[in-house]
UniProtKB/TrEMBL annotation:
SUPFAM superfamilies: lambda repressor-like DNA-binding domains. It comes from Rhodococcoides kroppenstedtii. The keyword DNA-binding applies. This is Transcriptional regulator, contains XRE-family HTH domain. Keywords: DNA-binding.
Length: 154
């Protein structure tokens, strides 16, 4: 009976280093193809994105082809040029774990009318409210519900 743990090379086991190299290679190629598809759907040329991100055309091309792994700083610049969330690129590159999906988070990330910084601030506020609510009702002000607006005399 064939061992399902064998790879196509016939080795019975892969070393942890081989597995890590395959994971990094897959993440690098995945982020590259994702960047390319986002760039093409935004109708931005490679040259335009490279200029916006502050990287050379050949370097961006190598990233898109999965030959180079971009740093978090370069990913943030590319995200800004593509008008997508840096977090999305970090997750695709394997730098961050994906958070559970939330319609609020998806809406903030999808809003092209606000800047990346504004998105980050909104999400920080949202997550702080979530943490407060997870802490329980003992943290709430007596007599007020969390959604009760304060009156300002308008």
């Amino acid at each position: 009976m064939a061992n399902s743990d064998t790879d196509s090379g016939g080795d019975a086991q892969s070393s942890p280093g081989d597995l890590a190299a395959r994971v990094v290679s897959t993440a690098t190629s995945d982020i590259g193809s994702f960047i390319r598809s986002q760039r093409e759907s935004a109708q931005v040329s490679l040259r335009q994105l490279a200029q916006t991100a502050g990287v050379s055309n050949p370097y961006l091309s190598q990233i898109e082809r999965g030959l180079r792994k971009p740093s978090a700083e370069v990913l943030a610049s590319i995200a800004k040029g593509l008008r997508v969330s840096s977090e999305v690129l970090y997750v695709r590159a394997g730098l961050l774990e994906e958070r559970p999906h939330s319609p609020v988070v998806d809406a903030v990330h999808g809003d092209e009318s606000i800047t990346e910084r504004q998105k980050q601030v909104l999400l920080e506020i949202y997550y702080s409210f979530r943490r407060e609510n997870d802490a329980g009702p003992e943290d709430e002000t007596p007599g007020r519900t969390p959604m009760t607006p304060t009156t300002t005399g308008e």
